[in-house]
Amino acid sequence: MLIVSTTFDSSAPEGAEPYLQVIAPDGTRRPCPELDQWVQDLDAPALEKLYIDMACIRRLDNEGTALQRQGELGLWAPLLGQEAAQIGSGRALEHEDFIFPSYREHGVAYCRGVDPHDLLRMWRGAAPSGWNPYEVNIANQQIVIGAQTLHAAGYAMGLKFDGSSAAAITYFGDGATSQGDVSEAMVFAASYQAPLVFFCQNNHWAISEPVSTQSVGYIADRAKGFGLATWRVDGNDVIAVMAATRAALAHVRTGSGPAFIEAVTYRMGAHTTADDPTRYRDALELEQWAAKDPLDRIAAHLDTLGTDLGELKERTATATNDMAAGLREAITTMPEPSVDDLFSNVYSHSHPWLEEQRENYADYLAGFAEETEARS
Questions:
Q1: Residue 56: enclosing H or E segment and its boundaries?
Q2: How far is residue 70's CA from residue 73's CA, in Å, rounded to a whole number?
Q3: 211: helix, coil or strand?
């Protein structure tokens, strides 16, 4: 089932791809029969919370980039421009649903209750992973492109075999759809009719390769070929994303098989802080997408609903400033890992081969201390 709406962003460049949309970039509410039924409960207070959520993860992202530039983090993967895709989908999930993210889903982790300090620990290199997945029902961020989709497929198959009512969801970018892992995950999920939602954030760039180079058609069409129910939505419209995610989750929970969401958004920043997008991206393209900013869009819509935007932005500033202050305090008090941590939790029990490595490495490090002492 491929759902493609004839209502799409009229402010987009000529030849823009169609997708389901509820809120236009200027804040106008547009009728969307395919999605409206899934977001009838979203009143002004609920939309204000979504706005604050998006502002918080934008501030989190800004702080992450700044901390990396200051030498406090080894690397950071920005999410600027993708706030609606992450918050809209993250807030649509139930607590028992399990998430398999890529390396950019800081906003989804935020929705799941992951402490932002734990997000920074991995990027600082202060821990082998950020958090206990089973405490918050979200796996640690995956660096290997597309690998998490196979993990998600296996987990979702387990949910079905166990008779669970929960679902799994996995996040990845447009570039990951060119990886074999993603295709294999869709094959397994479809073959076993697993309760799994594949969530593709089509941010138009796989590092320096544009999506037009990766795919001659819609990415959602690939999933249709595997037999998945598919939705293609405006990824900068937080309401549309939430609606599509709710619809997809309802579909997979009925035993109707896996689903695929292509959220059409844009990566406003670099692929990571090791990347320079000015070497391959046109400034005009960036300007066109800046006009579709997900935060400005929902603020404009709230204005039409009579929300006091001044008061809302004061609450937002308090929330984002508190987060930033907490992050900066945490980074200065974060304990550094010990050498022994390299060998902890590799196996569930003691392993002779690993213990031998531990001893060899300790001897290697001791050699430096002996050499220094001899020189002095």
A1: helix 44-69
A2: 8
A3: helix
Q: What is the pLDDT of residues 117-160, one digit of tens each?
A: 899 998 998 887 889 999 999 999 999 999 999 999 999 999 99
Question: Max alpha carbon distance in the chain (Å)?
Answer: 78
Beta-carbon neighbour count of residue 43 at 10 Å? Answer: 9
- Which helix (H) or strand (E) is 262 found in, with range? strand 259-264
Q: Which residues are catalytic?
A: 267, 271, 280
Q: Is 344 helix (H, G, I), strand (E, B) or coil?
A: coil
Report how far residue 325's alpha carbon sits from residue 315's, in angstroms, rounded to the nearest whole number.
16
Q: Phi/psi of residue 254, each to 5°?
A: -80, 0
Q: What is the DSSP letter of 164?
A: -
Closest CA to 223 of 254, 246, 200: 200
Instruction: Give the whole-angstrom CA distance, residue 367 versus residue 318.
Output: 52
Q: Which two tokens mark 214?
A: 């990766």
Contacts for 99 with CB less than 8 Å, ≥ 6 apart: 93, 105, 108, 112, 137, 138, 139, 168, 169, 170, 171
pTM above 0.70, yes or no: yes
